[in-house]
Amino acid sequence: MLGLKRGTVKLVPHDKRWESLFEKEKDLLEKKIGNLVVDIQHIGSTSIPNIEAKPILDLSIGVRSLKLAERLVAPMQRLGYELSKRSKNRYELLFTKGPESKRTHYIHVLRYNGAIWKHDLLFRDYLLKHPSYAKQYAALKKKLSKQYANDRFAYTAGKRQFIPSKIIFYNIKLFFFSSPGIIEKHNLVIGHLEVIGKNGTVITR
């Protein structure tokens, strides 16, 4: 039902149980860290019915400030999560659940209503509302999964080929703004967001 070796790519048919597993995990998180978070959302391909996905749940946790989010580390560890070494930027904390041989959950801790938070929800909601685009995206994912079965980073990069024009238009409207010390821009490729800080730090998504 859930679980995939770290760094590999394997798609499986959509499992209706994924939504209930998300709700179960959300309830657990709200009980343990609800006082520290604003919202918890199911993102990624497991949240889209009728398309194949890697059997790993992606959850997005919105917080008021990533500085305050550091208080999540200890309680998340008690819930079986590990802070990823990829959490080396000030725009996202990434937690993983499950051993490297069988990853089951990714949790992305983001600034609530920040650019990356909005980007991920926009992409999910667009695919939910437009099944034809979801099928196109699924076809691309299937092709890439065969080509890059042991290279998740190349697989992820390949998905940036997917450019529905309406999503691009919505993203231009949504991400054309800046906040103190940070320029946030969309690169006109769905699934690829760049956030550039004053010191030149770049995070892509």
Structure notes:
The chain is an alpha+beta fold. Helices cover 38% and strands 23% of the residues. It has a five-stranded mixed beta sheet, with helices on both faces. A four-stranded antiparallel beta sheet has the order 6-7-8-9. β3 (81-83) and β4 (92-97) form a beta hairpin. 28% of the residues are buried.
Task: Detail the topology: elements first, then pairings.
Elements: H1 17-33, E1 39-43, E2 57-63, H2 66-69, H3 73-78, E3 81-83, E4 92-97, E5 105-111, H4 115-129, H5 131-147, H6 152-158, H7 165-175, E6 177-179, E7 182-189, E8 192-197, E9 202-204
Parallel strand pairs: 2-5
Antiparallel strand pairs: 1-2, 3-4, 4-5, 6-7, 7-8, 8-9
Helix pairs in contact: 4-5, 4-7
Shape estimate:
globular
In total, the number of strands is 9
Average pLDDT, all residues: 82
User: Which regions contain 5 or more consecutive residues with pLDDT less than 50?
Assistant: 174-204
CA-based gyration radius? 16 Å
**Helical content (DSSP H or I, runs of 4+):** 25-40%
Question: What's this, in brief?
Answer:
With 205 residues, this protein is of the alpha+beta class.
List keywords for this structure.
single chain, 205 residues, alpha+beta, 5-stranded mixed sheet, 4-stranded antiparallel sheet
